[in-house]
Design brief:
alpha+beta; six-stranded mixed β-sheet; 4 helices; 6 strands; 33% helix; Nuclear Transport Factor 2, Chain: A
């Protein structure tokens, strides 16, 4: 009993309170729920593995096509938040498969650098291993 109580205390301190085993569906539903609440960075902290691999459809001058590691993924998220004013967003999903789930995001944003307002749509494919997201891939509507 003491060991279990210590595990709970450690989990609470680390922000990682969860059931002993989370399914891909549970990880997907948890991520989608937090994103719908606007807690995108909290979802990264909660569900991403330290060795997360993030893959964009292509490189940009500000973000390479592939990043590895939680700190670089957080930095990418911070850059995006600083670069765009979000007027409205929609999160659809999760769409669950074997070891993966997809989420469709739609954003109404204004680019802070140019003042240009646009709608962005992306499909994100997440790979789950050991109850953590180990890979995210982004695909964009053309």
């Amino acid at each position: 009993m003491a060991g279990r109580l210590e595990d709970l205390k450690t989990g609470a301190r680390n922000g990682r309170m969860e059931s002993p085993t989370m399914s891909v569906d549970e990880v997907g539903r948890g991520l989608v729920s937090m994103c719908r609440e606007g807690n995108f960075l909290g979802a990264v902290d909660r569900f991403y593995a330290p060795e997360i691999r993030s893959v964009e459809a292509s490189s940009t001058p500000h973000v390479p096509a592939e990043l590895v590691g939680i700190d670089l993924v957080k930095a990418k998220n911070h850059w995006w938040i600083q670069s765009y004013e979000v007027h409205h967003y929609r999160v659809a999903g999760p769409f669950v498969g074997d070891g993966q789930f997809a989420v469709h995001f739609t954003y109404d944003v204004t680019c802070r650098a140019t003042g240009r307002r646009s709608t962005m749509a992306e499909m994100a494919l997440y790979t789950v291993e050991r109850e953590r997201i180990t890979r995210e891939e982004f695909y964009y509507a053309t």
